């Protein structure tokens, strides 16, 4: 079996499905997410500026990261309801409307997992809710209607 640890993100993504590649992508992306999550938790008592600076410092590491499903670190932060990290990533250059392999964005995943505060923050920052952008998956507005929550009132009108 090939050792994929030295492969670039581009080479790994070009070989999704090969034995070991998916595992390497998932482990790398998960490890980066955990590091960023730890940075977020360590800066709880400090300013958001410090958090954004630390997240931005690691941009070269987290920006190209995607797991086997093309989920970015922003997707993982939204899936986990880590609003502070979501904001830090976006303020440090993450694409707010990045789509995973089936077309879901961070806001869609936050809504599906019922992380309404995270979804609300993504919407406030500018996450797209336009149905025509989600032809391959459930649009966020449809998820929001099903998962209706008082936190979202005023955000999805």
From TrEMBL:
Signal peptide: none
InterPro entries (UniProt xref): Ankyrin_rpt (IPR002110), Ankyrin_rpt-contain_sf (IPR036770)
Pfam families per record: Ank_2 (PF12796)
Name this protein carries in UniProt: Ankyrin repeat PH and SEC7 domain containing
Species this chain originates from: Paramuricea clavata (Red gorgonian)
């Amino acid at each position: 079996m090939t050792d994929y640890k030295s492969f670039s993100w581009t080479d790994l993504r070009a070989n999704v499905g090969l034995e070991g590649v998916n595992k390497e992508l998932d482990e790398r992306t998960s490890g980066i997410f955990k590091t960023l999550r730890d940075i977020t938790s360590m800066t709880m008592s400090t300013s958001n500026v410090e958090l954004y600076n630390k997240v931005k410092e690691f941009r070269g590491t987290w920006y190209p990261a995607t797991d086997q499903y093309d989920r970015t670190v922003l997707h993982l932060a939204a899936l986990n309801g880590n609003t502070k990290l979501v904001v830090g990533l976006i303020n440090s250059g993450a694409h707010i409307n990045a789509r995973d392999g089936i077309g879901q964005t961070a806001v869609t995943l936050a809504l599906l997992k019922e992380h309404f505060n995270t979804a609300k923050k993504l919407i406030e920052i500018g996450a797209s809710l336009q149905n025509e952008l989600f032809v391959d998956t459930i649009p966020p507005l449809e998820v929001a209607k099903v998962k209706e929550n008082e936190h979202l009132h005023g955000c999805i009108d």
